[in-house]
Design a protein that fits this description.
The chain has about 230 residues and is mainly alpha-helical. About 60% of the residues lie in helices and about 0% in strands. The relative contact order is 0.11.
Length: about 230
């Protein structure tokens, strides 16, 4: 009898899980959340961000509503590294001010939940900033100012006599702008398998480029395009 009882419990549990999964799929709000993402880590991050109410004020894709902080252009979000600024703010909350609505404390969230919210904020910010910076025709920039920016932000990883000349020869105009914003060689997903682990060197380079993308101004980008284009 104990074995039969155990078997019945296992079957009942499996049926319950299947029913919950089916209900979850039926109730998934594609219109609000968008279609499920191919990368399960990003999908989980987005769902966590929505589950705890962040999307209600800040928008799923960081198009804020009402008096909520504009996370797409927030300087604090731009300076955040792996949640070191966003995490403490989520846990402490923000009191109401003359310009902003209050944000409640999320002190009971786990580190993993905070990490998922941070992941989605940065991902959505990069997507939005890319769209903003790549929209419309290229604007003229100052090559000298572009060199100054490159020397300060890029030269620690990219050799002027090698990398700059290469990218200047390979691309021009809108293609050069796109290559600066989102280098094809650094398109790495967040998920990986045991047989194909992530390359830590490329992952580090991707993170640095992502930080630049989140913080470029339109002038920074135009100046970089002018500088890199002048090296052909």
């Amino acid at each position: 009898m104990p074995r039969l009882s155990t078997a019945v419990c296992v079957v009942a549990f499996a049926a319950s899980v299947a029913a919950q999964t089916s209900t979850t799929h039926r109730s998934y709000d594609t219109e609000f959340l968008g279609p499920p993402m191919a990368d399960p880590i990003l999908q989980h991050a987005k769902e966590t961000y929505v589950l705890f109410g962040c999307a209600y004020c800040h928008g799923v894709n960081l198009v804020s509503r009402g008096e909520a902080t504009d996370l797409m252009h927030s300087a604090l979000v731009g300076r955040d590294e792996n949640g070191n600024r966003i995490g403490p703010l989520l846990r402490s909350g923000i009191p109401q001010t003359a310009k902003l609505s209050p944000m409640p404390q999320f002190s009971d969230l786990s580190d993993q939940q905070i990490g998922a919210i941070v992941t989605w904020i940065h991902y959505a910010r990069r997507q939005g900033r890319y769209q903003e910076l790549s929209a419309g025709p290229s604007r003229s920039g100052d090559a000298a100012a572009g060199k100054t920016y490159f020397d300060g932000a890029c030269s620690s990883c990219h050799a002027v006599d090698r990398d700059v000349a290469d990218i200047g020869r390979k691309y021009e105009g809108d293609a050069l702008r796109a290559a600066i914003l989102d280098p094809k060689a650094l398109k790495l997903g967040r998920s990986f398998t045991v047989d194909r682990p992530r390359d830590p060197r490329l992952a580090s380079a991707q993170q640095r480029h992502h930080a630049l993308l989140e913080n470029y101004s339109a002038d920074d980008l135009a100046n970089l395009v002018a500088y890199l284009g002048s090296t052909r």
